[in-house]
């Protein structure tokens, strides 16, 4: 069973009975928003309109949007006009492109859907790409690969490239090159006053720092320029082991001595009615022979499935083998680990642990991910974090309480190993409280984010998110 099989668990989960996360900024009273139609070129939809549900629907229906109106922006000018209208009327603004990574529900206010801002322009001579606010990672991967280049994508190719990058962006080349957020050159932003800015390391330096980690708290990102890398191919894939081999697999994994050119992860996978399995993924910027030598302790255990192979960068999505995104209710938690505690991981998520269907994954950090980048950002906790722990359990809303309790038990079992914080990319609907948002950042960075938020969005117009307030 691979991750594709795991995600299919969601096919058996009812999509009804979803719950909406509370709006941390409060709910304004109903305001007239019909005037929006005269200000933008793209569609403006209201509750009851034919396409309203489709344009507000996100990947994870645990959070449902119920705005007064949704603006399907046709370009950056539409975004600016919609934000200016919202600002004039004191309405909160929510932003959505692919519908992944939603934390809070857009209740009342205006939802701006940026999915049509999906342009991807690759500049091979500069090794950069200019991407729109609605571009998916898959489109960037395919365009870059055609030029013999690569972006620092993550495990899924169907998420929005902008949201993934500004949340940090942790992928299979992270230990060699760092977070995707470390390789942003410029950001096109519409501020809470509807003003368009080109944000760079030299122009609006405070916003450039804050957006990479603080994400949608400061406005709507309509475009971005990112670095690309000469990665024509990678040796990567997954090894699958039976749950009964967990002690041997974890011991071998903990003993690996890997260069920065290899990034790995280990996951406990549970599907209804099937035995638990363990999956180890690896991505190596080197030869097959060298990769096999590095992974020899695991290969020697006789995996029941081995998909490791040299694949062109255009096929990088096969390493994690994520299926095309389809809406399903998934409950998620994440945290940084300071070590790889074999015994406590076995107790928390091994074959004897009583957990609901889903995944407990440990992603390897270190290498460039632990070093200070050339361009500083609000992505912190680099020094003490050796791994990222990620929990994902598909389940309908009525099972939210027992699933949350089971996930919390995993975190409690590993409490001594948690190094503090998490990566903003992995924050979920469970992380919208002020305490959880604060914990995602280092104290000095959090204080700086609040100062910048106060300067650029003093009325907290952009509060339908993991809010800085």
Q: Helical content, roughly?
A: 10-25%
Q: Helical element count?
A: 14
Percent of sequence in beta strands: 15-25%
**First-residue to last-residue Cα separation:** 43 Å
Largest sheet: 8 strands, antiparallel
Total number of beta strands: 17
**Class per helix and strand makeup:** alpha+beta
Low-pLDDT parts are 1-31
Radius of gyration computed on alpha carbons: 21 Å
Mean pLDDT: 91
Question: Which term fits the overall shape?
Answer: globular
How would you sum up this structure, described in words?
This protein is α+β, with helices and mostly antiparallel strands and 469 residues long. Helix content is 25%, strand content 21%. It is built from 14 helices and 17 strands. It has helices spanning 3-7, 52-56, 76-89, 137-146, 161-166, 174-177, 205-214, 246-254, 288-294, 296-299, 342-349, 400-413, 434-439, 443-456, and strands spanning 44-45, 69-72, 93-96, 110-113, 120-123, 128-132, 184-190, 196-199, 220-227, 233-242, 262-270, 277-284, 305-306, 309-312, 330-337, 358-364, 387-394. The strands form three sheets. Strands 10, 11, 12, 13, 14, 15, 16 and 17 form an eight-stranded antiparallel beta sheet that branches. Strands 5-6-9-7-8 form a five-stranded antiparallel beta sheet. Strand 5 (120-123) and strand 6 form a beta hairpin. Helix 11 (342-349) packs antiparallel against helix 12.
């Amino acid at each position: 069973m691979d991750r594709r099989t795991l995600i299919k668990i969601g096919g058996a989960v009812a999509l009804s009975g979803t719950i909406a996360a509370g709006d941390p900024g409060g709910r304004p009273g109903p305001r007239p928003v019909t005037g929006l139609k005269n200000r933008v070129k793209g569609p403006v939809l209201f509750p009851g309109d034919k396409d309203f549900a489709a344009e507000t629907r996100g990947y994870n229906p645990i959070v449902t949007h119920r705005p007064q109106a949704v603006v399907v922006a046709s370009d950056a000018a539409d975004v600016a006009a919609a934000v200016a209208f919202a600002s004039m009327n004191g309405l909160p603004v929510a932003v959505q492109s692919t519908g992944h990574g939603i934390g809070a529900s857009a209740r009342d206010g205006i939802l701006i859907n940026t999915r049509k801002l999906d342009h991807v322009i690759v500049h091979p001579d500069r090794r950069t790409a200019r991407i729109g606010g609605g571009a998916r990672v898959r489109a960037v991967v395919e365009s870059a690969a055609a030029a013999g280049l690569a972006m620092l994508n993550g495990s899924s190719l169907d998420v929005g490239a902008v949201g993934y990058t500004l949340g940090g962006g942790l992928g299979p080349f992270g230990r060699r090159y760092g977070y995707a957020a470390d390789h942003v050159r410029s950001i096109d932003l519409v501020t809470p006053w509807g003003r368009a800015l080109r944000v760079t390391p030299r122009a609006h330096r405070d916003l450039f720092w804050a957006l990479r980690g603080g994400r949608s708290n400061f406005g709507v990102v309509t475009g971005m320029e990112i670095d690309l890398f000469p990665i024509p191919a990678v040796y990567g894939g997954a090894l699958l082991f039976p749950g009964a081999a967990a002690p041997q697999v974890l011991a071998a994994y903990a003993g690996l001595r890997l260069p920065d050119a290899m990034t790995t992860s280990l996951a406990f996978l549970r599907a209804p009615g099937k035995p638990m399995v363990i999956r180890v993924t690896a991505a190596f910027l080197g030869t097959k022979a060298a990769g096999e030598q590095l992974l020899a302790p695991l290969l020697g255990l006789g995996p029941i499935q081995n998909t490791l192979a040299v694949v062109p960068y255009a096929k990088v999505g096969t390493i994690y083998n994520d299926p095309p995104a389809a809406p399903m209710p998934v409950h998620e938690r994440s945290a940084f680990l300071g070590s790889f505690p074999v015994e406590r991981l076995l107790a928390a998520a091994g074959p004897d642990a009583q957990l609901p269907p889903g995944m407990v994954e440990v992603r390897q950090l270190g290498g460039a991910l632990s070093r200070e980048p050339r361009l500083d950002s609000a992505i912190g906790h680099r020094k003490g974090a050796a791994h990222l722990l990620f929990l994902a359990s598909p389940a309908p809303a009525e099972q939210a309480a027992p699933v949350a309790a089971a996930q919390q038990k995993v975190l409690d079992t590993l409490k001594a190993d948690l190094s503090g914080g998490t990566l903003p990319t992995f924050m979920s609907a469970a992380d919208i409280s002020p305490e959880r948002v604060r914990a995602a950042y280092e104290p000095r960075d959090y204080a700086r984010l609040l100062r910048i938020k106060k300067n650029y969005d003093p009325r907290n117009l952009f509060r339908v998110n993991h809010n800085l307030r």
